[in-house]
């Protein structure tokens, strides 16, 4: 055959054909260079020379991917197993006709091949011996009361994802054993005889257990019986427990103290919008001081944050007697009383007032100076006054934030918000420097 059919001949036939020998010149170094090490050729000049194919790094199996697949498969199996066990208990709860005993739902039936509890649902094998039945029921109620099902669910979920950790399997074993010790202790507290109860454990020892449930299947029977007859823990263990508790308490105390030092408490300001109701305050150009004071207070309250909290003494147009305001301030847990007012004069500037006879006069004067300084007004100053509102024991400042003659800024929302922002900025600085 020839022509176009030639390429279809088997390669073995090609060597059997009576063709003249053909020599091919290969440069091993050039082939290696062109393929970046994917191919290695033996040093030979004829077609019959042997070539060795070396897989590149890209073609090599990725061990990390294989491990990831194995981990995913095993984890999936554990999750499915956990879900299946949970569904078995759920179905058993749904179809069972329980007897209510207080908060417990109890099912005593021959259908139950073992006794166990899941939260407040208790399943017990039918037992002719009433004393034994009482032991088992008390034991399972103890599991329910102590929420042992929660512990088992948590450790089972952890094992779904950390099944490769032997410490977790050991922890699971210890948790289950400790559950049994605690339940046994609860039974004995009911006044049952130790010897009778220990005998019951020995006779009813089983290896069967419902996953996710706390059961009366007595694992490590010897240890449990030993614990039953053990009246008091050893002195060494008591000392170790006491020492551990002291270390833990000290750590918590140190951490709490450190946290308290790091976190500054919130600075609370009781804001008094001067006048109100039948008391209009100053009047200029048809503008009432009481209305502007309230608007400024409401704007300032909106700026409250985690560091500074603004509380309003009045949040609407109402009349509150000065003595009543003072009483409110005295009973408040606020750190500062700030009373907002306006003057009726012209170019009066921001004025701060404090009571020099107050027990907190020095701090009040300092706060008044800080509040006034934020407005950067040359006409502003600090004044002494014995206003009723300033006669409390906590730091108290009366602040005239402007004059009604300059009503363009005070009567506009933009101007009021600007004043509120300046005041709040100053209050934050005061809070940080306390």
TrEMBL record:
First-level EC class: hydrolase
Transmembrane intervals: 64-84, 238-260
Pfam families given in the database record: Amidase_3, Peptidase_M56
All residue ranges annotated as the MurNAc-LAA domain in the record: 326-428
Keyword DNA-binding appears in the UniProt entry: no
InterPro entries, A to Z: MurNAc-LAA_cat, N-acetylmuramoyl_amidase_3, Peptidase_M56
Keywords assigned by UniProt, alphabetized: Hydrolase, Membrane, Transmembrane, Transmembrane helix
Reaction(s) this enzyme catalyzes, per UniProt: Hydrolyzes the link between N-acetylmuramoyl residues and L-amino acid residues in certain cell-wall glycopeptides
GO biological process, alphabetically ordered: peptidoglycan catabolic process
Molecular function, one GO term: N-acetylmuramoyl-L-alanine amidase activity
Keyword Amino-acid biosynthesis attributed: no
UniProt signal peptide: none
Alphabetized SMART domains for the sequence: Ami_3 (SM00646)
GO CC, alphabetical: outer membrane-bounded periplasmic space
Catalytic activity, EC: 3.5.1.28
Protein name: N-acetylmuramoyl-L-alanine amidase
